[in-house]
């Protein structure tokens, strides 16, 4: 009947051709308005708060562009290894598992133009425009713009853990870590690098977006010894849900030895601020929306295909260049090449 809907969970394919095959098959039974492609990150309260933060407040919009922002970092770091997902992960790897969906959806919410309405058409139209504006990587671009890694034995949380190959039981070239320098080629974001990073067996479990603003054009404190850091907005998705704006403040004192400035956080904790509210898990919100027929927080077919098109080009570049994962010890922030990826641009990852 017309009220029957279908929910699809990732992975929706292995690459663009297989994704199209799945979507074509489903489309023969259901029209697009009854197909609900789930990305559970879109059901997270903090992810939805990106839209509230951007479009419910007036003071961010004037600087939310290449004139005001220096770089944007998106990190999804996990401390777990294979767990019970060896069969799936060996066929996927970090790029397909996390970048093609979760990370690119976060990028779209950060980079999108203001929708006219919070509804399924306007929000997803603007996200799709971002995906169409993502700079496609050619094989010759991939070595300089990506880092791929695989963890070996190390310590996580004070415990020795096995390497990926040891957990798997045989040697593998599947990546458990990827870092990417991406660009959105449009009027708002031209020249602003988006650094994307995800991996398993990392130093800590952490999902966050760090938006680093441009430095002040002139420091009046330089002659008095005051050092300034660029302001950074940090949106943490897990394990805690917080929004922090890092600003400069003067340390108390008589300043006989110069002006001492320090970076301090203006911090909003959603758990504390809304302590009386029952916190719903992401799937509760998404399944309720599915039942009610609201597709706003679900992924449209053109989004899925644009995401695959972009990550397929990266994987093709790895194949063309014979790229193999660089090894990193479990319990660290990935291969040293990932640090070099940002530091070549004078940028440091926003690690605690």
Give a short overview.
With 352 residues, the chain is an alpha+beta fold. The protein is built from 10 helices and 13 strands. The longest helix is centred in the first third of the chain and has 26 residues, at 86-111.
Strand residue percentage: 15-25%
Tally of helical segments: 10
The second-level CATH architecture is 2-Layer Sandwich
Mean pLDDT: 93
User: What is the domain tally?
Assistant: 1
CATH top level assignment: Alpha Beta
Q: Low-confidence stretches at least 5 residues in length (pLDDT < 50)? A: none
Spatial gap, N to C terminus:
52 Å
Q: How are the strands of the largest sheet arranged?
A: 12-11-10-9-3-8-7-4-13
CATH superfamily: Dihydrodipicolinate Reductase, domain 2
Largest sheet: 9 strands, mixed
Radius of gyration: 21 Å
Helix content: 25-40%
């Amino acid at each position: 009947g017309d009220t029957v809907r279908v929910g699809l969970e990732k992975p929706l394919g292995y690459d663009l051709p297989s994704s199209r095959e799945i979507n074509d098959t489903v489309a023969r039974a259901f029209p697009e308005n009854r197909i609900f492609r789930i990305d559970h990150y879109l059901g997270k309260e903090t992810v939805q708060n990106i839209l509230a933060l951007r479009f419910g407040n007036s003071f961010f919009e004037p600087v939310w562009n290449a004139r005001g922002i220096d770089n944007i970092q998106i990190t999804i770091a996990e401390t777990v290894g294979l767990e019970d997902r060896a069969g799936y992960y060996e066929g996927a790897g970090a790029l397909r598992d996390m970048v093609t969906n979760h990370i690119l959806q976060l990028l779209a919410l950060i980079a999108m133009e203001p929708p006219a309405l919070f509804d399924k058409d306007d929000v997803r139209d603007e996200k799709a425009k971002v995906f169409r504006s993502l700079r496609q990587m050619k094989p010759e671009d991939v070595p300089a713009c990506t880092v791929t890694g695989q963890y070996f034995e190390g310590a996580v949380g004070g415990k020795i853990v096995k390497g990926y190959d040891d957990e798997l039981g045989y040697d593998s070239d599947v990546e458990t870590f990827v870092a990417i320098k991406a660009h959105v080629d449009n009027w708002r974001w031209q020249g602003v690098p988006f650094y994307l990073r995800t991996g398993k067996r990392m130093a800590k479990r952490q999902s966050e977006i760090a938006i680093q603003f441009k430095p002040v054009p002139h420091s009046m404190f330089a002659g008095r010894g005051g050092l300034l850091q660029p302001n950074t907005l940090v949106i943490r998705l897990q394990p805690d849900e917080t929004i922090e704006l890092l600003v400069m403040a003067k340390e108390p004192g008589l300043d006989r030895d110069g002006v001492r400035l320090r970076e301090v956080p203006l911090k909003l904790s959603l758990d504390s601020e809304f302590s009386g509210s029952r916190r719903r898990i992401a799937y509760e919100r998404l399944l309720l929306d599915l039942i009610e027929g609201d597709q706003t927080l679900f992924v449209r077919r053109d989004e899925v295909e644009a995401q695959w098109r972009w990550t397929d080009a990266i994987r093709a570049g790895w194949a063309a260049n014979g790229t193999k994962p660089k090894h990193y010890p479990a319990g660290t922030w990935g291969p040293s090449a990932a640090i070099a990826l940002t530091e070549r641009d004078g940028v440091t990852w926003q690690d605690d």
